[in-house]
Structures are given as structure tokens and as C-alpha cells.
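Protocol step 4 of 5: obtain the predicted structure for the target chain.
Materials: sequence only (see below). No template structures provided, no constraints applied. The aim of this step is simply to have a reference model before the mutagenesis design in step 5. Sequence pasted as it appears in the construct record:
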Amino acid sequence: MKAVIIDREALSAVSTIAIHAYLKSQMWIRSDDLGDRGVVYHSPSGAEVFAPGSHHLADYAEAASAVIAEIASVEGRDELAVYRDLASADRDLIRFRAPEAAEDGSIDLNAGVDLVLQSKDALLAAACSAVSPQRYYRSGSNAKANDYLKTVKLGQTEQGSFVVAIYSPVPPQLEADRQPTFWPELDTEPFGRQVTRTLAQAVDALGAAIAEVGRGANIEAFERVVARGVSANLCGAVAKFIADGEGLDFSLTWARTRPSPEPRHQATFAPSDAGLLAEAAKVLKNKGAFKNEVLEGYVTGLNRDVIPENGRVKLKTFVDGHTRSVTVELPRELYSKATEAHKSKLAIKLEGDLEFEGQRWHLRTPRNLEVIEEREADE
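Step 4 output (C-alpha cells):
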């Protein structure tokens, strides 16, 4: 028995832009333009359908229902499947599928919750990389990426597997009404599409790095693709998903309202990939740089023998909630201020790019050093 969509709210949620974009992408031809009412389309097989032109029509839900029914009839599909395609036609649809779910699509509760969180973390990692590719991102450090995440929606799981479906909004393309042969320059795309394209290329890069390590490469296989969106955060999220879902089938269906050179992007990871990606996440995190980090602490060591104009200090501070010693090379003026703070047993605050290298923490390009004066007792 085939499903029939009768829920008026669900039907009203399908946008006019999505209906028209879907029909065009399936080679339906505009035949009669009825103004604000809508447009009549004919399929290559000769079927006819009326596509409403405005959400404000009193019978919009009925018109949307008729479109879905006609498309389902022409394509020989269930109305529910057509509805899902129309509901996502104006959004990029990201699917993270756990291949070893039960036949009814169910999965252990704790594992299911974790799979949703890992899918979110993977998308957030791609959003951070779309802003600025790095080996590792600290939680909450990228405001633009976090703001983007507030715009995405979680879809329903699908029968026959456990699928985390994520809808990423994409504004419609208003220029040439044709299928492009090549992708436009990434920085000319809306940010939502920048994120999904970054995610797609990063997932491909992960697969290539895994294959390269299998041929004897080391962590450099992953470091070379940081510019393509690979990060410790993405490796960690994908590794955990694979471990909990016993594999990962990834797919990204591009919004029909913003044409792309391909209809769908897909990738698959085996259960055996989890351990390698988890190790890559750990190494990349340790080698990652924290940009524009502000540290506050006490100088515990001084060394003027590095370069005549510079001096090296050791700063006792907090990194990721733990007490760490951080080495900083300072120019003469800043080194003098740090020396005076050390003599006076005062804390300092300074900004720079924090890196973990050679089993030690280093602050590169230090700037804005301030000595924190002792506060009066009554403050």
C-alpha cells in the first residue's frame, strides 16, 4: 500500500520555489503561465500538472498535494518519497547513515543520541573550516560557524536504516537558469553552500588520506588536506560515528533551487577506519594552532641567550582547563616588561597563536602584553 500525503501543515511546508525547481530539474516544461495563480507544466511523457505560484492561495495545500500525486504517478514512486524530495528541494540534505541499524531503522538509544551529536560535530567542523582551515578548533571559538549551525534543521530518520538527516538552508540561484558544468568559486557561494561543499570535499579527503596511510604514509597524509576541510574535529566526529554505527554511509543531496554539477555526493567508511581516524584526530589536535589566544599567568623562567634582540620566557597558565607551561619568544620591549613582572611577582596577559610542537606548548607572534597590577584589598 502506497502512502498518500493528507496533512495540510506538511503540504503547506513545501515551498513554491521547491516545487518549481524540482519540476525543472526533472525536465518538465512550462506550458501555460497563469500569473499569480501558478504555472502549468508538462512532463516529457505528456503528463500535466499545475504548480501553484504563491503560498497565499487559499487552496495551496490541495495544489501541493495534486503536484505530489502527479509526480509520484509519473515517476512510479510513493508519495512520501516524492514529498521528502520536495521538502528538501530548497535545502542541501546531508545524510549520515549507520549501516548496521535494525531492519526497522531502530538503534540503541544511547548510540542513537551519540550519532546525532557526532553528525552535528562533523557539520560544525566543516563550518569552521569554511571560515578558516585549521588542524583543530576549540569549542565555541568560531562565532560564524556556530551561528550557521543555528539555521540547520534535523530531519526525520528513515526506515530500513538509522539515518541522521540534516537540512542546510540555501538561497535560490537567481542568475542563469541552467545546470552548471563546474562549481563556482567557493568564496562566491552563500555561506551555507560553502559549508556543505567544504564538508563534501573534506569527506573525500578523509577517504584519500586513509588510503594513503594504508600505502605506508604517516600523519602528513591528513595534514596535507587540512586546506580541504580536514581537521581533528572532523576526524574525531567521523571516527566516533563509525564506531557507534559500525560504519558510515555519507551522502549530500544538493538543493535543486541552486543547481550544482552533480545531484548527489556520496562516500562510505568501513568499521576498520574508526581507529585510524581517532588517532589522526589526536595527532592533529596536538599539532593544531589556537589563533588569537589570550593567555594569563605568571612568568616562571627567563632566558636572554636565544637571539640578542629577543628573550624567551616560560609562562605558567591554563590551556584547555589544565595548568601548562607555555614558551614565548618576546622582542626586547616585551621581554623587559615580562622581566619586571617576574621580579615584582605580577601576572601578565598577552595574545598570540598557541601551538603544540616538540611535546611543548609555544605562543607564536606574541602581542599586546600587559602586566596585571595587584588589586587593592578592598576591590
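Step 4 remarks: The chain is about 35% helix and 25% strand. The first helix runs from residue 8 to 12.
Proceed to step 5.
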